[in-house]
Write a structure and sequence with these properties.
There is one protein chain. The protein is α/β, with parallel strands linked by helices. It is built from eleven helices and 17 strands. It has helices at 3-14, 19-32, 46-49, 51-68, 83-94, 108-117, 183-199, 245-253, 266-273, 275-285, 290-301; strands at 17-18, 73-77, 101-104, 122-124, 136-141, 150-153, 156-157, 159-163, 166-169, 178-181, 201-210, 220-223, 226-228, 238-240, 243-244, 259-265, 310-316. Strands 2, 3, 4, 5, 11, 15, 16 and 17 form an eight-stranded mixed β-sheet that branches. A hairpin with a 2-residue loop joins strand 12 and strand 13 (226-228). Helix 1 (3-14) runs antiparallel to helix 2 (19-32) and helix 4 packs across helix 5 (83-94). The chain binds S-adenosyl-L-homocysteine. S-adenosyl-L-homocysteine binds at residues 27, 31, 37, 45, 47-48, 78-80, 84, 104-107, 110, 141-143, 146-147. S-adenosyl-L-homocysteine binds next to helix 2 and helix 3.
């Protein structure tokens, strides 16, 4: 059954469904049926822009293991094409670390793509099956924005119904107060924070978003690199919402034994981790790449590009140092 038919059946049975339910169904189908990343897809992400992104993350994780003298498994939430993991693991390898790898991913289509890049990973459909007996270093880039978002308008949950054969969400009257909440994201952060407190390790969240309280409609849909109406053609565009970093930090801070740092702008973080030095090294090794490397760096760090809308939050478990570059 197509996702539109499924959503129609649900709405017929119940009269209406929440924006969160609509987004969950639409995105599950969307990710299960394609590799959405890159020039020929719907959107592009930092690891697909430049190898420097994953390499600097790998070095930051290596630094944390060196500082504690403990090893940890590498975990990635929603690893996309596996590019970030491959780049991070290469940098970790050069620093002398070869962690076991766990991918939390629901899309069978993307399992196959990830297996080409990182063949010996272990796949999980949810964080609940991750190992519970060792430290975990968890990375999530553009993962939380894809999880179902609830919206309310003046305190009433926003719903989707069918009108004249089309999906229509409750309109947002001018001057109305829109609030958003991503219960699934808060639950995953709280679950991981409890593990980090018990097992050790850290979680690094990188995503576009804001420090709350929220007061705007941030739901958006991208198709072939253009914004489209989120309620037209469900399952054919990537639905996302901006991440409320204040809400995620609060979910972790409720857990005893973890330390939360940030959020810090992605541009400032990458500069603190040494992106200028890495650009220079790669440019020396291959001078023909210099102009490309400079353009990639600008795309990642410039405030008008990904440098300030994207933010980084670090959560460290008991006995583990803060995530580097956020202090
Ligand atoms: N981190 C990658 C990909 C971001 S796209 C990058 O930066 O390029 C979002 C990723 O999250 C995809 O891999 C998608 O399949 C996965 N995903 C979306 N919803 C998910 C869910 N509920 N559980 C697990 N993975 C999910």
């Amino acid at each position: 059954m197509s996702v539109a038919a499924r959503l129609s059946a649900l709405i017929e049975a119940e009269g209406l469904i929440s924006v969160a339910r609509f987004m969950a169904e639409a995105n599950a189908y969307y990710y299960a049926t394609r590799d959405p990343l890159g020039a020929g897809g719907d959107f592009i992400t930092a690891p697909e822009v430049s190898q420097m992104f994953g390499e600097l993350i790998g070095l930051a994780l290596a630094h944390m293991m060196a500082e504690t003298g403990q090893s940890a498994d590498y975990v990635e939430l929603g690893p996309g094409r596996g590019t970030l993991a491959a780049d991070a693991l290469r940098a970790l390898g050069r620093a002398g670390f070869a962690p076991k790898v766990h991918f939390v991913e629901t899309s069978p289509r993307l399992w196959a793509v990830q297996a080409e890049r990182v063949p010996d990973a272990t796949w999980h459909e949810a964080v609940s099956t991750l190992p519970d007996d060792r430290p975990l270093l968890v990375v999530a880039n553009e993962f939380f924005d894809a999880l179902p978002l609830s919206q309310s308008i003046d305190g009433v949950e926003r719903q989707v119904r069918i009108e004249e054969g089309r999906f229509v969400a409750d309109p947002i009257p001018q001057g109305a107060r829109v609030t958003e909440r991503c219960v699934a994201a808060e639950a995953i952060v709280a679950d991981l924070a409890r593990r980090l407190a018990r097992q050790g390790g850290a979680l690094v969240v990188i995503d576009y978003g804001y420090s709350g309280p929220a007061s705007a409609d941030t739901l958006q849909a991208l198709r072939a690199h253009e914004f489209v109406d989120p309620f037209v053609d469900p399952g054919e565009a990537d639905l996302t919402g901006h991440v409320d970093f204040t809400a995620l930090a609060a979910a972790a801070e409720n857990v005893e034994g973890v330390e939360v740092v940030g959020p810090v702008a992605q541009g400032d973080w990458l500069v603190a981790l040494g992106i200028d030095m890495r650009e220079d090294q790669l440019g020396r090794a291959n001078p023909a790449r210099r102009a490309d490397l400079a353009a990639q760096k600008m795309r990642l760090i410039h405030p008008d590009q990904m440098g300030s809308l994207f933010k980084v939050l670090g959560i460290s478990g008991r006995g583990w140092p803060s995530v580097p570059g956020l202090g």
